[in-house]
Write a structure and sequence with these properties.
Shape: globular
Number of domains: 1
Structural class: mainly alpha
Number of helices: 10
Helix content: over 70%
Largest sheet: none
Order of helices and strands: HHHHHHHHHH
Mean pLDDT: 84
Amino acid sequence: MLLAFLRRDSREELARPAGAALQVAGTLAQALFWALLGRALEPGRAGYFAFVAVGGAVLNALHGPLYALASGLARERQLGTLDLFLQTRRPVAQWAAGLLLFPTLWSLALTAGYLALMAAFGLPVEAAGAARLALALAAALPVYWGAALACGAWTLRFRRGQPLAWLLGAGSMLLGGVFIPVERLPGWAARLSPLAPTFYPARLAREALLEGRLDAATLIALLAAGALSLALGHALLAWSVAWLRRSGDLAAD
């Protein structure tokens, strides 16, 4: 089933080359913007440039999956296929994973292109560092998959908006140490930073790529948080599906 979703979603993406091209152009424009800004703020130094380059990579890799499931469910509803596969009684985890698979791979591919451009601007990217970065992102993805499941549950139950995704996205950008160093934040904001979902992934990614190390304790804690996030997100999504089936609301607009 996963391969069927992957084939379908990849075909749909290829059928809209303008949309894919715009996403690629947007990613490259973001890389160029942060590279130029970092150089302008600290000419001759890699300090802020390196900080924001890695933060942007983390955000690009993780935020695509965050919005993917809710968007995918909304699209399935528009196509008239949502009720069909909800009524088949397939396991929730199976079709949710199918809807998340292509957006996750696509986000990672865009992130690889982003990092390649950043490397051209002077970001130190070597094979060992890239491998450690990949491990850090792999540990962080389950946290975002669980959040994506919760966003999907909201979309199924209330059929409007993605307030949870918006809250997590805004919190990550403002408080998560992605673009703004946590030590530069006001005291109250710095105390809230560890709650942002990008806080630990961004720290791990910078350690991996810029410092040549990976803190095992943080990595294990992130994996544990991912397991908890997946379990909670799955429970919420399963509850939403069960509510739709009980209420007979599957075909409602």
